[in-house]
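User: Predict NADH-ubiquinone oxidoreductase chain 2's structure from this.
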Amino acid sequence: MKNLTKIMFMFMMVMSTVIVISSNNWLSMWMGLEMNLLSFIPLMFNKKKKSESMMMYFMIQSMASIILLISILWNNLLMVSNLLSQNLMNNIMIISLIMKMGGAPFHFWLPEVIMVLNWNSCFILMTWQKIAPIFMLSKLKMSSLLIIFIISSAYIGAVGGLNQNSIKKILAFSSINHLSWIMASIYMDSKIWIKYLLIYAMMLSLIIFMLNMYNLNYISQTNITPTSTLFKINLTLMIMSLGGLPPLLGFIPKLMIIQSMIMKNNLIILLMIMLSMITLFYYMKIMTNMIMNFYMTNKWMLKTMKQEKYQFMIMSMNLLLPFMSFLLM
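Assistant:
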């Protein structure tokens, strides 16, 4: 019965996103966002953790939905079209959508909520829950206000993860930094954000699969958890790919965005590239702690997991897909 309930809420969450994408009316999009909110909250429930995160998520999302609804009703223009005027209400809608996605400077709730979720819910929150707000953002008239959110998200996502020991918080700030690249693609009126989000979700799913396999939540656990050498090499490659190092998979979408922005906003893309280098620093904290140090084998951690075939599959995806993805460019 419990699994049937989860399946029902998952189906509602998927259908709510489909409603947002297939709508040509702002009110129906808002309704899809509300369905998405109410279907995800039961999936966040965890008996071992406190429920304050669910309340925090509900309050932030409800506040953003109220702001969005007020701006929609104030516009008196319900159809999505190029006639969407009134820059003030347009900017308010952008602010509400950034708040829903957890972009800086409205990011304070995202690391705290992710910290108490399980890995599956973390993946949904960092990927699927952003599809509907990003789609709505792409339908809005772009303004200079979005540049402020792009730069602030790139900065907070880079600097916020420097002093963190929790892998979940590191991935949360990494998600904020990747959100800045997606918003930059939207600002350039490009459809590259679809490819970027797809590749980012693919990389994050593989990383979370490997972390969940050994129940790794903190960097310090990499010293005491017995893992195979192939697992360490594989996770290192995936983290480097998430940082956007060539010639791995994560470099391809960043290269496409750089090519689309280099002729128009040189300063912004240069700043984003420099801030992305900072994210590599706290990625390296995970890698060096795991590879350069020998782990301590405790008696209660002697369970070995024979899943080498999955490791080879993940490694081949990370190394071979970049060459295949050049066909998408």
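The chain has 14 helices and no strands.
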